[in-house]
Design goal:
Layout: H1 11-15, E1 21-22, H2 33-39, H3 52-67, E2 70-76, E3 79-82, H4 87-94, H5 102-116, E4 118-129, E5 134-144, E6 149-154, E7 164-170, E8 177-181, E9 185-189, H6 207-225, E10 232-236, H7 242-256, E11 272-276, H8 286-301, H9 316-346, H10 349-353, E12 356-360, H11 370-382, H12 388-394
Antiparallel strand pairs: 1-6, 2-3, 2-12, 4-5, 4-9, 6-7, 7-8, 10-11
């Protein structure tokens, strides 16, 4: 990441004198020791550091954003119209950078935003010189790993103008540090923010719940590994020396432990009695507590119960309403934030003055069944809301001859003309 950034030779010295330093919450990968220590379960194997509800929520939110195409419009005196693609829209429509498709690009951004609280996209621009002046043209866009970015509010003007925000990116491979101005970075953050500049990850308020979820999963896994409910007490009279005791226990474990030994007969020596402890996963409301924790995690992300496979109070119709509720309660704010940041950072001032803007197509997550969709489109066309071509476009069909005009039912008349058809004029039927 060379062009567009410069190495900061005086970074460490100057940073100490800046009054306002804003840094993201220290973060770690889901497989790192730092996260294990943060969770207070550093002895837990790395492969077990995965809370399924937390993962499901991250997956749900990131894939939802990745599903929605980004459209380019213009707000004119004649209404909102599709705009001809500019350089930025072409990149976001086809390939933001050589390595990412638009769906992967936006889902990765959303993944960073939710897990780290902030997501950063560097807009790489290149100066194109003309005979008289030149323009900065967007070349591509790159996601900067959130844990490698530091945000600075420079109120002393050490790096340029006073009161400006700068983004410092440290390449973990080369060790080089680059600085970018605010206009060169798209910054997406969670709503969990108290200064409006940096967002905080949802996991900050879910620390206890996540820890409990991980530990409960470990508990259940250990029960399965040891034969689930095959725990028992071996009763006998007399005394055994330590070597004999260990040998006896080892012999029983060989028959009783592990799911592969489930249902096998356990040989009990004469004079001894094996009493099962009858441990059940339903004891102490284990499943109820686990479900409650899952709903807490999902609720913090704005995820509905049916989206984490909780269908107890759900039906097909109800699920449709829950999907609409998910869009209104959760996605609408997120999409609005993305659209505002993309429009402001990727468009020139004259373009925004002319009414150009970006908007995600939310209809892809609000689609109904084919029967309902056809009835809705037919009603829209018959009542002059949709043109035929507009309805066909929703169905990914080509334009039709005569489909670019508004059609309405000929029996409809303006409310102001009701009754006038019966007054005045010649009656040709007399």
């Amino acid at each position: 990441m060379g062009q567009g950034g410069e190495r900061l030779n005086v970074f460490s010295k100057a940073i100490k004198t800046i009054k306002n330093v804003i840094t993201p919450t220290p973060t770690a990968n889901m497989q790192s020791e730092d996260l294990l220590e943060w969770l207070g379960i550093s002895k837990t194997p790395k492969r077990l550091v995965s809370e399924v509800t937390y993962f499901t929520c991250l997956k749900m939110l990131s894939e939802t954003l990745g599903k929605m195409p980004l459209k380019f419009y213009q707000d004119t005196n004649d209404g909102i119209k599709k705009a001809e693609s500019n350089t930025a829209h072409k990149l976001l429509k086809l390939r933001p950078n050589p390595f990412m498709t638009p769906s992967i690009f936006w889902s990765t951004v959303e993944q960073n935003r939710n897990h780290y609280g902030n997501a950063f996209v560097w807009i790489r621009r290149k100066l194109t010189l003309y005979k008289y002046g030149g323009d900065y043209e967007i070349q591509d866009m790159w996601i900067m790993p959130s844990e490698s970015v530091r945000v600075i509010l420079d109120d002393e003007g050490y790096f340029g103008d006073k009161g400006q925000i700068y983004y410092f990116y440290t390449d973990k491979y080369s060790g080089q540090t680059y600085t970018f101005r605010n206009n060169d970075v798209m910054h997406f953050k969670t709503s969990y923010s108290f200064d409006g500049i940096m967002g905080a990850p949802v996991r900050d308020i879910l620390k206890t719940t996540l820890e409990g979820g991980l530990e409960s999963q470990n508990f259940m896994n250990n029960l399965y590994k040891s034969g689930l409910t095959a725990k028992a007490v071996l009763e006998y009279t007399g005394d055994l020396k330590e070597p004999a005791k260990k040998k006896l226990i080892a012999g029983f474990e060989a028959f009783a432990n592990g799911s592969e030994n489930s249902g096998k007969i356990i040989p009990v020596p004469l004079g001894m009695k094996l009493t099962p402890l009858n441990i059940k996963l339903t004891d102490s409301q284990f499943f109820e507590l686990k479900k409650f924790s899952a709903l807490q995690i999902a609720g913090a992300f704005g995820i509905k119960p049916n989206q984490i496979n909780n269908y107890e109070k759900s039906s097909y119709t109800n699920s449709e309403m829950q999907q609409l509720s998910f869009y209104v309660d959760t996605e609408l704010f997120t999409l609005k934030q993305y659209e505002e940041e993309i429009t402001y950072k990727l468009l020139e001032k004259w373009e925004t003055d002319e009414g150009f803007f970006f908007k995600f197509n939310e209809k892809v997550i609000l689609r109904t069944d084919s029967k309902t969709q056809m009835e809705t489109l037919a009603s829209g066309v018959n009542n002059g809301i949709y043109k035929i071509d507009e309805a066909r476009e929703i169905l990914n069909l080509p334009k039709a001859e005569g489909g670019d005009i508004i059609m309405v039912n000929g029996n409809y008349i303006p409310a102001t003309m009701v009754g006038k058809q019966y007054s005045g004029g010649d009656n040709k039927n007399e």
